[in-house]
Design brief:
single chain, mainly beta, seven-stranded mixed beta sheet, 11 strands, about 0% helix
């Protein structure tokens, strides 16, 4: 069974950093584009970042550009989201997702598999 498991979330002060990880199993990881989404309480799911099969192409939401970095290690079947200069507005549940081949997707409909998410809380 395909499984995506996020980790690395927690409570951090504004201006701090967290590195989120998403470990994949049950799929050929290098065949999938990967993405990160987030959903704050009472709000719709929001695209954060995406990365191509080999990791040479990335795309970021304007709200996180310059602060967050997506990367992947295909040997470890893991995708990362390095979050720097965190703001209270970044508080959300962060989920990773996998999309088989194709172009980078910026909407949830483009992804076939999802993790359960990890909570990031940024205090002021």
């Amino acid at each position: 069974q395909v499984q995506l498991v996020e980790s690395g979330g927690g409570l951090v002060q504004a201006g701090g950093s967290l590195r989120l990880s998403c470990a994949a199993s049950g799929l050929t990881f290098s065949y999938y584009n990967m993405g990160w989404f987030r959903q704050a309480t009472g709000k719709e799911r929001e695209f954060v970042a995406a990365i191509s099969l080999s990791g040479d192409n990335t795309y970021y939401a304007d709200s996180v550009k310059g602060r967050f970095t997506i990367s992947r290690d295909n040997a470890k079947n893991t995708v990362y989201l390095q979050t720097n200069s965190l703001k209270p507005e970044d508080t959300a549940v962060y989920s990773c997702a996998a999309a088989f081949w194709g172009a980078l997707h910026r909407t949830p409909a483009g992804y076939q598999h999802w993790g359960q998410g990890t909570q990031v809380t940024v205090s002021s």
